[in-house]
Amino acid sequence: MIHRQGDEVIELNKPLQLGWGRFARVAIMFLLLAAGCIALDSGEDDIGPGIPMAISVVLMLAYQATGWRRMQRAHAIEPLSLSHLDRVMKVMIGPIIPAVIWIMVIIAPIPIYLVYFIINLR
């Protein structure tokens, strides 16, 4: 199956490339973006607001790394491709209950950040 996007042709049946180098490139870009946002938000002598956000970013990358590993294992059994995106997403997310717990833990530091921000507005 072939999909055209402008001048680019995307082959949907082509197996996904799931090396750790590819994951690392995306993770590094995400970390740099998050670090820039945290640095812009916190002052030179006040890193308090950045700590909960940094924890959320690290936890999210840990969750994504476990999903990436699940995708590698599933890919070893039967190749994953973009033509079966529902299967790719199901493998990436994993079992529902642990996924919900992961998401709750990832989001938990954000209200702490908001409370800290509201307190320091005065």
Shape descriptor: elongated
Strand fraction equals: 5-15%
Q: Tell me the strand order in the biggest sheet.
A: 1-2
- Main pleated-sheet profile: 2 strands, antiparallel
The helix-and-strand class reads mainly alpha
Cα Rg = 19 Å
Q: Roughly what percent helix?
A: 55-70%
Structural notes for this entry:
- The protein is mainly alpha-helical and 122 residues long.
- Helices cover 67% and strands 7% of the residues.
- Helix 2 (50-77) packs antiparallel against helix 4 and helix 2 (50-77) runs antiparallel to helix 5.
- It is elongated, with a radius of gyration of 19 Å.
Question: TL;DR?
Answer:
This protein is mainly alpha-helical.
Task: Describe how the helices and strands are arranged.
Elements: E1 2-5, E2 8-11, H1 20-41, H2 50-77, H3 85-93, H4 96-107, H5 109-119
Antiparallel strand pairs: 1-2
Helix pairs in contact: 1-2, 2-3, 2-4, 2-5
Task: Provide key terms for this protein.
122 residues, mainly alpha, two-stranded antiparallel ribbon, elongated
